[in-house]
Write a structure and sequence with these properties.
This is NOC4L protein. By secondary structure, the protein is mainly α. Helix content is 46%, strand content 0%. Helix 6 packs antiparallel against helix 7 and helix 7 runs parallel beside helix 10.
Length: 254
Amino acid sequence: QLPPGLYKKVLVILHDSVLPYMNEPTLMMDFLTVAYGIGGAISLLALNGLFILIHQHNLEYPDFYKKLYNLLDPSIYHVKYRARFFHLTDLFLSSSHLPAYLVAAFIKRLARLALTAPPEALLMIIPFLCNLFRRHPACRVLVHRPAGPADMSEDPYVMEEEEPSESRALESSLWEIQSLQNHYHPDVAKAAAVLNQSLSEMEDDISGLLELSAYELFDKEVKKKAVDVPLEFEQVRGLFGKKNDIFADHFSLD
């Protein structure tokens, strides 16, 4: 049993400062799988080490995607390890052999959580979801289902379900993205509107968006050049400001 602070310090460096120098990295399987089951930031940090064991040392983890799915909660868009988490999640969901119901569950859950996410996270997650649609065309039914729920309470998707196969995500529609098309931030609304058109085959590069911060967004807006919009202005004359107004002959504005 390690204190949470020490757990995090170990897991941050484990994948690049410990595992490459071990003769038998598989000895860390139990430690990483236990850390992955703790939840919260510790589980996010354990992903790096688990990825190396799965990818390079043939670790079999039957419930891996179920646990990854259950890591998705509202805090995922706010934690400081967000960039690392979504980079790895992108890798884990890159295989074309994943079942459609699983990818659809991830898409739907990420979209639902995006309703309360900050703009800098939304500018990353929308291209992320678009890439998933490009890799898994069977999931596009979420976008192209013409008869979505008339009332949001009728959405068949079960957010509280821990098992992705039981979440009924493929029966739902992605009304959350349509909501984001009316977002107060114009860049978010513009990014969300991309799903109204047919997606290109080329995937979006999200590497530059993973660590986008609120400060960078604000700085970008401040540095925008203001565009002078020419306006016709006719000085108000008379009570109602109209030409040849009879009231102008009898009344004046002081």
